[in-house]
Amino acid sequence: MTDLEEIQTFIDRFVRQGMRGALLPLLHAVQEEFGHVDPKAVPLIADALNLSRAEVHGVISFYHDFRTAAPARHVVKLCRAESCQSRGSAAIEAELSRHLGVAMGNSRKDGQVALEPVYCLGLCAIGPNALVDDRPVARIDSAAVERITSEVEA
Amino acid sequence: MTRVFVSKDMASVALGADGLARAFADAGCEVVRTGSRGLFSIEPLVEVETDGARIAYGPVGPGDVAAVLDGSHPARIGAIEAHPFFASQQRFTFARCGVTDPLNLADYAANGGWKGLEAAFSLSPQEVVDAVKASGLRGRGGAGFPTGIKWQTVLDTDADEKFIVCNADEGDSGTFADRMLMEGDPYCLIEGMAIAGHAVGATHGYIYIRSEYPFAIEAMREAIARSAGKVAPFTLEVRVGAGAYVCGEETALLDSIEGRRGQVRAKPPLPAIEGLWGKPTVINNVLSLAAVPFILAEGAQAYADVGFGRSRGTMPIQIAGNVKNGGLYEVGFGVTLGELVDEIGGGTASGRPVRAVQVGGPLGAYFPPSMFHLPFDYEAFAQAGGLIGHAGITVFDDSVDMAHMARFAMEFCAVESCGKCTPCRIGSTRGVELIDRIVAKAPRESGALEAMPQIRNTKGAARTHDEEIDLLRDLCDTMKYGSLCALGGFTPYPVLSALDHFREDFGGASALPEAAE
Fold first, then answer.
1. Is residue A79 annotated as involved in ligand binding?
2. What stretches pass through the bilayer (chain A) (predicted)?
3. Taking burial as the number of CB atoms within 10 A of a residue's CB, which of A13, A136, B449, B463 is the most buried?
């Protein structure tokens, strides 16, 4: 549970830059700092940018990147787009899901790891690809699935 | 001290370039981190400076350092420029990518950098626009609209403020040229945007980069800070997307920069007249803007001399998917699909026969090998029922299920639809259901709906398999002509091309004889 006052201070500091169209950059900054965008922060953000709460909520819910709850300790984002599919990503997805013990698009109950879909990382000639805690991994095979699994279990 | 060059491109890093660079540094070498040369089958790649020339080795790992340094390693390639994948390219836009240190300003200037901007500053805005028009440059984002005409409109529109926006929301699977350029030669894009600013009278620019490209975001931010003095009074800023594919559509992208949901705007008004915050805005793809410095530095004619028909200049083609020699291949328009896939790409990585290639990302058509004679040209592809798009080619071997790929196209559209227009928002979901029924050979039964007294125009019996396919075509027609933007409008391309060329995957006989080849 993040302290609202802390979020308010953070927002105030950000808004002082006077950036035009500041909502997305501010949401990114809040998520970067606090791990997610707490729904309780929505009125604060709306107030700071002179927007309605509906506008802020609308933006948060529109973009896949913004989270409203704390993320798992490790996040594996596996590409599901065409180029990775042509290189066997469907089988890798099933294997990874089995090894990590979590279905695609979910966080494991113990909060250790989340498996999320991503549509293209721009590494399309060397798939299947993933971002493991923001580190790019390419040419994922069964051995790589085991490496990723032991990495995120640690 | 021996100088070695190792890429820090995201793809190279994903293949282990960081460990390789560390190993060479530990061995006492001076390691220069560059962009990627663009051929991933030889990465991780290292180039060792020997007697003023660069000798490449790849793929190599951290354990190969000693053998590389004494020249005995078997993965010796020699001069990269002589490698067949590179020797046949015409690198106008990617001339420096993989060669120079991307953030080194002296390196940039020593390799032809800023020459285009200096030439532009010596010309009037109208003369710059005329040069871009004369080059025949067309929008590299996919639509192929003449860049010079777009700039002319912005130049001719009076306003107190104008903007240059770079669309770096490269969301199409099978494309990575924007990413490679931003990571490997960011000043080239900055130079192109500064030239555009001078040409239309804009003083501020935005580069909208997708959040899936953290390396490119970092490289561009750093490059903007370092080159600020060079492009002044023009200023630049990076804006980061948030995982919405539709923001690659230009008007949705503008809404996103303004801080709103990335929803598509109806056109007109064109962004060139009423764009960002209602002001005249040049919005171009990374590759369009990055092609401009060459045009100004070398002359419009030098660019226009290369190409095919009405497609002038070069295209950085991205060969991706299940292919042996995947990577970035920049060449003049006119090269055939077959040359790209079979000769340059070397066929599939799995060694199985090629069954289909998708050109132009998730909204591009699937072509069978019987259409490999098609020349890479906007008009030729449009005529064949497809599009070049951002020039990504995704190769599939014979294990692909094309009905599954058609379903995926609809599913992707349903997930990523901005929701503003009905054909895209609802049509995509209905498309998924319809393809599911077609594949399961379970046509829709006559149900409670048909029995209602208000419904008079249904036949009241179950549909046949063929009727379901007709309905899918009908739905595609509605989406194609009724959607506001290319997301709903182009999703029919992969669906219909799969249906036309690979009918056997949808249950029933092949519709076109060539698909049986």
1. yes
2. none
3. A136
Instruction: Confirm if B62 and B104 have CB atoms less than 8 A apart.
Output: no
Tokens of B216: 């490119």
pLDDT in tens, chain B (517 residues): 899 999 999 999 999 999 999 999 999 999 999 999 999 999 999 999 998 899 999 999 999 999 999 999 999 999 999 999 999 999 999 999 999 999 999 999 999 999 999 999 999 999 999 999 999 999 999 889 999 999 999 999 999 999 999 999 999 999 999 999 999 999 999 999 999 999 999 999 999 999 999 999 999 999 999 999 999 999 999 999 999 999 999 999 999 999 999 999 999 999 999 999 999 999 999 999 999 999 999 999 999 999 999 999 999 999 999 999 999 999 999 999 999 999 999 999 999 999 999 999 999 999 999 999 999 999 999 999 999 999 999 999 999 999 999 999 999 999 999 999 999 999 999 999 999 999 999 988 887 777 788 877 777 788 899 999 999 999 999 999 999 999 999 999 999 999 999 999 998 654 444 443 4
Please indicate if any CB of chain B lies within 8 Å of the CB of A24.
Answer: yes
ipTM above 0.95, yes or no: yes
Residue A59 Cα, gap to closest chain B Cα (Å): 5
Question: Is A23 annotated as ligand-binding?
Answer: no
B124 and B264 co-located in one domain: yes
For the domain A74-153, what is the CATH code? 3.40.30.10
The verdict on a CB contact (< 8 Å) between A23 and B239 is no
Nearest chain B residue (CA) to A64: B243
Q: Does B324 touch chain A (CB under 8 A)?
A: no
What's the pTM? Answer: 0.96
Q: Side-chain half-sphere of B212: how many Cα atoms within 13 Å?
A: 31
A-B C-beta contacts closer than 8 Å: 143
* B chain contacts of residue A55, beta-carbon cutoff 8 Å: 260
Rounded to 5, what percent of chain B is helix, strand, coil? 45, 15, 40
How many domains does one find in chain B?
4
Place of tokens 């390639």: B77
- Please judge whether A82 and B40 are an interchain contact, meaning their C-beta atoms are less than 8 angstroms apart: no
The reply to whether residue A64 touches residue B394, judged by beta carbons under 8 angstroms, is: no
Q: Answer whether residue B90 is part of any domain.
A: no
Owning domain of residue B244: 105-304
Domain boundary at B255, B288, B304, which? B304
Residue B55 lies in a domain: yes
Is the same domain home to B114 and B233?
yes
Residues B362 and B316 placed together within one structural domain of the fold: yes
Same domain, B125 and B200: yes
